[in-house]
Amino acid sequence: MKRFTWLFLFITCYANAQETIEVDLSNPHATIYTHFYFLQNDSYQPKKAAATILGLSESKAIEKVLKIKKVLDGKGLSIDFNKIPSNPNYKDSIGYTTFHKYILFPQRMPKIYVEKIDNKWYYSSETVASIDQIYKEVFPWYVDKLQNLIPASGHKKFLGMELWQLLGIVLLLVLVVVIFILTKKIAFFILRKIQHQITHRTSNLELDKVLKKLAHPISLLISLAFIDKIFPSLQFSLEVNTWVFLGLNIAETVFWIYVLLKLVKVVMRIYEEFTQRTDSRLDDQLVPILNNFLKGLVLVFGLFKVLRLFGVDTTTLVAGATIGGLAFALASQDTVKNLIGTIMIFLDKPFHIDDWIEAGEISGTVEQVGFRSTIVRAADTSIYQVPNSKLSEIVINNKGLRLFRRYNTNLGVRYDTPPILIEAFVKGIREIIIAHPETRSDSYNVEFTGFGDSALLIMVNVYFKSLVWGVEQSSKHRLHMAIIKLAKELGVEFAFPSTTVTIEQFPEKKSLSLRYNTDQETIDATVAKIVADFTGENPIENPTENV
């Protein structure tokens, strides 16, 4: 009797427990839980699950709810009921307008969602209308036919899988390998055609290697898409599909990152070839900066994609990063100013790489323009790292943009030099400048300009053609040597600071005046000889350091 009583109590409690779960359509969580609870093996009641469909007959509604569950199971989409809202007035905030609806998987299955209708939540009319098409996409027409053709022995299990599923995996892998090989060749062919259309140049060996590396992950992506399309047909359990599709999505994301990184490399390679054909050297410096920026952008978006696959709410993460970024920007205004200065430098282009500039107290050759600062190497090879914010605000004298290099000096000759020799000396220097291959023969000045403390001053103002510092120095050397030879042959002496005491009518003392040869023919012959000798000299090769 006691055993019977305990048995009666157990059956009563069990029946009450079974009756505690009833159809509840009061909120998104209740509706979705009702649908999936009554389609489980231990609580299978499809009629109650069909209550989540509005406006269809019972048999049609049952067909729809079964297809929704099979589609989600086939794609490995496991529902986390803890994340489904229980608010009866829940509004979807995705998009520009808000509605009383909840989308289970916004990214992968946006058409399957529940919505509020007359204070109750049902699967939407869009879900009901499109589920048949979605089901056909996940489970193509051949799936049901194959199921009918599988013999009883094919349902025997081996390693936790039915034999037909194991055979299907082997066949799928073979097809994937074939597709990978074919698509790799096709992708490389298409990429080469696109490259030819953009650059109008035949691809070189280095670029072909890059295109092959880009074709490799593209073919892998196509192979993964094929697996994603076919694998649900093998009808594994939800647990297996969840892990398989998670792995496929992670692999797809990684391959996409790889593809985009290689694409950045190809684009930067093409852009680099373009910059090499331009006169500007600043855009050459832009290549590594753009390359690093685009790679960073790809990696950041790839990271966000991977986080979403693991269920992380990236919207909240982006919002937090934005607020944190704003606070960080306020705390590091100098860095932001330098970044803006960098943009201004690349837009205005006040100088190019290898230009000699004078900016405030700094003068030197521009070697590198970075995100934050510009590196300038001085004449003594020391390095200045100038913040771009400061460089974009101060006055910059870009001597690298000069058309010519101006050289101006004064020659001092003795006061007792005869006028005819001064005139001949000036004339000879003019002819040397005209004969000089590195000076402008149409723009120069050689004139007797004044009287110094201890010398007669002859101004020499010339313009050298080359902007290279080393070539300029060798040109000066040739000019100076020719002037010295001319002075020696004419007998013109350069003065130096001195004091001459003249003693008049002193017995037995001779004058200190030098004897100058003022014969005109001798003078003309001397000038002609020096100019001819100068013209016949070989130019001296010098370093090409630009200063």
Automatic annotation (TrEMBL):
Keyword Phosphoprotein: no
Signal peptide coordinates: 1-17
Residue ranges annotated for the Mechanosensitive ion channel MscS C-terminal domain, each copy included: 409-494
InterPro entries the UniProt entry points to: LSM_dom_sf (IPR010920), MS_channel_C (IPR049278), MscS_beta-dom_sf (IPR023408), MscS_channel_2nd (IPR006685), MscS_channel_C_sf (IPR011066), MscS_channel_TM-2 (IPR011014), YnaI-like (IPR045042)
Localization terms from the record: Cell membrane
A GO CC term assigned to this protein in UniProt: plasma membrane
Stated name of the protein: Mechanosensitive ion channel protein MscS
Upper lineage: Bacteria, Pseudomonadati, Bacteroidota, Flavobacteriia, Flavobacteriales
